[in-house]
Amino acid sequence: MTDQNEQEFLNNLEKKLWTSANKLLPSLDASQYKHVMLGLVFLKYVSDAFDIRRDELKAQFTNPDNDYFVDPADFDDDAVYQADIASELEGRDYYLETNTFWVPPVARWQFLRDNNKVVIGGAELPVQSKGEIKNIKISSVGHLIDYALDAIEIDNPKLKGVLNKRYTQLQIDQAKLGELIDLISTIPFKHESLSSKDILGHVYEYFLGQFALAEGKKGGQFYTPKAIVSLIVQMLEPYKGRVYDPAMGSGGFFVQSEQFITAHKGKIGDVSIYGQEYNHTTWQLAAMNMAIRGIDFNFGKEPANTYTNDQHPDLRADFVMANPPFNMKEWDTGVDDNDPRWVYGKPPSGNANFAWLQHMLYHLAPNGSLGLLLANGSMSSNTSGEGDIRKALIENDLVECMVALPGQLFTNTQIPACIWFLTKNKNARTAASGRQLINRRNKVLFIDARNLGYMKDRVLRDFTQDDLNKICDVYHAWQTSKEYEDQKGFCSSANLADIQKNDFVLTPGRYVGAEDVADDGEAFADKMARLTAQLKTQFEDSDRLEAEIKKNLKGLGYDI
């Protein structure tokens, strides 16, 4: 998904970031220093983004050909002119019009960098606020950072309760904290082809994974691989309406939706974001992710369990996207057996897969669509009534498309995964994207993508953009009947009768068949004879090697 130059830049950035984190290791455990690092990286990013916009505005104010030009001829004194420019640069609306996060003066990185040595032991600092200079008492470097975060919360009410203002309480050498600020100052959020938002997203993903591993947790629980997020977003095309993720993690689906909308010349203001997350740290991170992008969001009043404390009980979303924990056990403690969400059957206590699926369906609007990443077992399991729930979903014509994914896409699990795409309305209609959908009642598209992708390192697989396009193009062609054809080994459109014959199993391999293999001209009987002889020779070689190894070991005094 990134070219070699970008990947090298990100790898170097990771090394620098981890060096920064390790400066705190002697005195802080992982559960503490993750908050320290994420808070400071957040401050650095919003300040850099603010400075970029500030430089743009300054160039516009001093350019005679620009509408924002401030003519120095209108001022008797250059100092007055410069003061007027400085005042204009503090106009909040200039930043908000480009979705740039507004950063108050005391929270700007330059202020922290200039004063982190000064405040060790306590100091009074002059601060400009609303055109006036006032002195504030700062007792330590930790207090300096907390003061910055508090100022951001005051100016950005959506972040109230989100930022960790605990730096004053840290049992850490203040000089070390000052050094950390200096080191983070060298981290660039500028690159020739990567946007600052993309870099920040990579930074957060990297840190969440590293911190989770340091705490002994599964790093992958915090985020979904970007390629899978991109695939689901490209297939659903959330141009307008309400977008919901009931297991949102750090907000990856929302970020990718924003990028998709922007790339297709849409308006992010046409989309409303709703999410829920149980883990407090990732709930905070998701809120910060939205705030810095200027995306309005509703993540509920607090981090909460989706099953026992639904933060959006009345929501009916146009698009629902999620990657919940695979095969989650004991999820139903405190959940009523007669919960209205279990329309198609009560999910078993030992596995939450069909609980997630039905929760998402419950929150789906009449014309809505959802994409859900689940373990492969969900497509075929008949354990504890799961087969009955799957059958009910199929017979109620809710399943639209099933995608089987290749292995090794996740850092934290080798469990094979698939994507379920469901909708409540398969009738002919106009989608939010403007596509003219045909009548797809009682039909399901099966896509077997297990052979797509490439190994980006020794253990992880990734998709190329061509891979994503191949899957999405087939899906959209099938929805609109534009030159869609079944492709052996890759995709097949099946009807309800086909699925009934397969006992309501939804594994794509059962429907797409095997890819045609080119005829090599060798008769089957001849090929079998040749291969059998070759196998016999290999067995003989194996026996000979085993005897040699035993003989050598015996000579060394080991008898096996």
Automatic annotation (TrEMBL):
Q: Record keywords: Cell membrane included?
A: no
Q: Give the reaction(s) catalysed.
A: a 2'-deoxyadenosine in DNA + S-adenosyl-L-methionine = an N(6)-methyl-2'-deoxyadenosine in DNA + S-adenosyl-L-homocysteine + H(+)
Provide the coiled-coil residue spans. none
Task: Name the family the entry cites.
Answer: Belongs to the N(4)/N(6)-methyltransferase family.
InterPro entries, per the entry: D12N6_MeTrfase_N (IPR022749), DNA_methylase_A-5 (IPR003356), SAM-dependent_MTases_sf (IPR029063), T1MK-like_N_sf (IPR038333), Type-I_RE_MTase_Subunit (IPR052916)
Segments forming domain N6 adenine-specific DNA methyltransferase N-terminal:
13-184
Keyword flag Transferase: yes
Report the leader peptide range.
none
The residues covered by the DNA methylase adenine-specific domain are 196-519
One matching Pfam family is: N6_Mtase
Q: Which UniProt keywords apply?
A: Methyltransferase, Restriction system, S-adenosyl-L-methionine, Transferase
Which top class of enzyme applies to this chain? Answer: transferase
- EC id: 2.1.1.72
Which domain of life, per UniProt? Bacteria
Q: What is this protein called?
A: site-specific DNA-methyltransferase (adenine-specific)
